[in-house]
Amino acid sequence: MTTTAMKQRSLLGLKDLDAAEIESILDRAAYWEQQAVKLNPVLQGKFVANMFFENSTRTRFSFEMAQKRLGAEVMNFAAAASSVEKGESIYDTVKTLESMGIDAGVIRLKPIGMLAEIAENVKVPLINAGDGNNEHPTQALLDLYTMRKQFGSLKGLNVSIIGDIQHSRVARSNLWALRKFGANVNFCAPDSMRASDLDASYISMDEAIRADVVMMLRVQLERHAGSVMNSAEAYREGYGLTIERAKQLASHAIIMHPAPVNRDVEIDSELVEHPQSRIFPQMSNGVPIRMAVMERALS
Ligand code: NCD
Question: Which residues contact 151 (CB under 8 A, 6 or more apart)?
Answer without folding.
Answer: 157, 212
